[in-house]
Design goal:
This protein has 272 residues and is α+β, with helices and mostly antiparallel strands. The protein folds into 3 domains: 81 residues, Ribosomal Protein S5, domain 2 (2-Layer Sandwich); 30 residues, no CATH class; 135 residues, Up-down Bundle (Butyryl-CoA Dehydrogenase, subunit A, domain 3). Helix content is 64%, strand content 11%. It is built from 9 helices and 4 strands; from the N terminus they run βββαβαααααααα. It has a 4-stranded mixed beta sheet with strand order 1-2-4-3. It is rod-shaped.
Length: 272
């Protein structure tokens, strides 16, 4: 199934809030916005992301919300004794006031296990979002794939048949004879003409790439890079056909086909 590289996921667990966003990117790029106390776990967080996401610019943000203030006499007494002992040990003057306790910051940490669970939940949300976007992408890709298929089949129908090519060849041959070319030059000119006029080989290769494209789209594993390569190859073949085709109808079909390939290339740019 096609999965988009664009998506959003979030999850909460206790005082932990995790957000993950992903955008288009040729490779896998990670940006982490996490509290400093989670720095020792940075590599573990990156591994969690790499296991489930293969491509895209991913941004992960973890916020630990402050816990509700509660009266803790035991902890306050311990803090008082710590300050009192510090004053005596260092010979400091002054009284211990309420201000010292207001400066005592609340802990806003959480266990690594809870953080990991929250990240995995946010990842599941993100992946579902990417799958939903992927379904929409697949519908558009199928539509323009169909138009591309119809376009190359129409070119095939309008390509001159064997009898037409023979007539054109005889006409070309007669014109060259009238110019009084020697045998060697005559062969060279006719060979070049046949190469320029015959684009059947390029059309067949185009169809081979198109059939492969259809197979790759159905795969479960990430396929964006492979699909981009196939679009590039089809563009190469259609450009050659464009250069060779002398028929106005075929030239118009080639222009339309290039437009469809351009749309497909833009859509594939968002596929994981």
């Amino acid at each position: 199934m096609i999965q988009s590289m664009t998506g959003y996921g979030e999850a909460r667990r206790g005082n932990i809030h995790c957000e993950i966003k992903s955008l288009n990117h040729r490779f896998f790029n990670i940006t982490l916005l996490i509290p400093s106390w989670l720095s020792p776990h940075e590599l573990k967080i990156m591994e969690l992301l790499k296991k489930r996401i293969k491509r895209g610019a991913v941004s992960l943000k973890i916020h630990i919300e402050s816990q509700e203030i509660k009266l803790d006499i035991k902890r306050a007494k311990a803090y008082y004794e710590f300050i009192h002992s510090l004053k005596e040990e260092l010979g400091l003057s002054g009284n211990i006031s309420i201000g010292h306790f207001l400066d005592f910051k609340k802990e806003t940490t959480a266990s690594w296990g809870d953080v990991r669970t929250t990240i995995n939940s946010a990842l599941s949300s993100l992946i579902q979002s990417r799958k939903d976007e992927g379904r929409k992408l697949k519908e558009d890709i199928d539509l323009h794939f169909k138009k591309t298929r119809e376009g190359i089949e129409e070119i095939k129908r309008k390509t001159p048949g064997e009898q037409d090519i023979k007539k054109q060849f005889k006409k070309k041959f007669s014109n060259l004879i009238k110019k009084g070319l020697d045998e060697r030059r005559l062969k060279e000119e006719l060979t070049l003409w046949l190469i320029r006029e015959n684009f059947n080989e390029e059309r067949v290769r185009f169809e081979v790439h198109l059939n492969k494209f259809k197979q790759v789209v159905k795969r479960k594993e990430p396929s964006g890079k492979h699909l981009s390569f196939l679009i590039q190859e089809m563009e190469r073949e259609i450009n050659t056909i464009s250069a060779k085709a002398k028929n106005a109808n075929i030239s118009q079909l080639v222009v339309e086909l290039k437009g469809e390939l351009e749309i497909l290339r833009e859509q594939i740019g968002n596929v994981m």
